[in-house]
Write a structure and sequence with these properties.
This protein has helices at residues 2-21, 84-90, 113-126, 142-151, 175-183, 187-198, 203-208, 216-219, 227-237, 252-263, 298-307, 327-339; strands spanning 41-43, 49-56, 64-69, 92-97, 133-138, 156-162, 285-290, 311-316. The protein is α/β, with parallel strands linked by helices and 349 residues long. A hairpin with a 5-residue loop joins strand 1 and strand 2 (49-56). It is globular.
């Protein structure tokens, strides 16, 4: 009898443990129990919907068309703070979108670096912005831009990666550099990255458990921000950020957690093996990195740029992770990408 009771308890415990690892189903936009669709969307070839936003000059008047890829815990409402004067002077059309699982875009249970790149290509085709276009990706959105360089280089007019995510498990990263940068992170953040890479099926359980300290990255703890980041956040707190309440509306797993699983998972290519997509200098690729960035290690970013000498590397001397929200720096990013200008006054020697 005792053995039977023990068996029931064990089965019950295993069932409970299994359930804690399973995230709740996403609340799909437009479904009966989901949030309403409030944005224009396209229907992708696999049946998913991708929400988008257009800004800048009208598409048919533009000289430059730029697809903007938002980062972690953000959305298509991420706007580059360029002045209207610059936008009109250069005739820039911006196309931003909610990445899969964010905002009004349907989740993608098969989301990957590759799928994000082809989402961008389909968006460009359905919005008819031309055979070639520019892409700017920030932070975690950087993995989608690396995907563009791998899978759709023939569609690119130019690329800017702004504080792009570094995956500590890229094969070509020297173990000593990767280990050194990894150990600079808080222990809870290290565990999140480790589980996202090695045991993604346990990530939901890990980040929702209450018996260990939460990861500063997921909590937005001040420790992850530099002094200039905090100044930017203070200024942003006085500004209404439209759509911020919709970023996670379909579920934190399909937005934030899946971002971590893809960004720090096992990629099917190594960025250091990529070839220059512009061998005749018909376009350019840029990496912008804040020297004081506490989320993405400049140490590793420099190594990536060293291994890929066709990338133009810019390190902002007092920049943190959020420097793109500085209007003058944002305009420097745009001018370097579109006009080839080099804003040396803001860079490290």
């Amino acid at each position: 009898m005792l053995a039977g009771i023990a068996a029931v308890l064990v089965v019950g415990f295993l069932g409970w443990a299994y359930q804690t690892t399973k995230p709740p189903p996403p609340r799909i936009c437009g479904a009966p129990d989901g949030p309403p669709v409030t944005s224009p969307r396209i229907r992708l070839s696999d049946g998913r919907h991708l929400a988008y936003r257009e800004s800048g000059v009208p598409k048919d008047e533009a000289k430059y068309s730029i697809i903007v890829v938002h980062g972690f815990d953000n959305s298509k409402e991420f706007s580059l703070p360029a002045s209207q004067e610059l936008i009109e002077e250069l005739r820039i059309y911006f196309l931003s979108f909610d990445r899969a699982g964010y905002g009004d875009s349907d989740p993608n249970p098969r989301r990957s670096v590759k799928s994000e790149a082809f989402d961008i290509q389909e968006l460009a085709d359905q919005l008819d912005i031309g055979s070639k276009f520019y892409v700017i990706g920030a932070s975690m959105g950087g993995y989608a831009v690396w995907g563009c360089l791998k899978y759709i280089p023939h569609r690119l007019a130019g690329i800017s990666l702004v504080a792009p995510v570094i995956n500590y498990w890229w094969p070509s990263l020297p173990a000593n550099l990767s280990r050194s940068a990894y150990r600079e992170k808080s222990v809870p953040d290290q565990w999140v990255f480790r589980i996202a890479h090695h045991a993604p099926g346990l990530l939901y359980w890990w980040v929702t458990q209450k018996w260990l300290p939460p990861a500063p990255l997921l909590e937005g703890h001040p420790v992850i921000f530099s002094s200039t980041d905090k100044e930017i956040l203070t200024k942003m707190s006085d500004t209404i950020r439209p759509g911020q309440d919709k970023v996670r509306q379909q579920g934190v797993f399909e937005s934030l957690h899946r971002d971590l699983m893809v960004g720090f998972g096992t990629w099917d290519f190594d960025p250091m093996d990529l070839s220059n997509p512009f061998p005749q200098s018909e376009g350019s690729v840029h990496i912008w990195q804040g020297h004081e960035d506490r989320m993405v290690p400049s140490l590793l970013q420099r190594y990536v740029a060293h291994r890929l000498p066709w990338i133009r590397y810019h390190e902002v001397h007092d920049g943190g992770h959020l420097f793109i929200y500085d209007g003058s720096l944002c305009e420097a990013v745009l001018r370097a990408l579109l006009l080839g200008e080099e804003p040396s006054s803001i860079l490290l020697d």
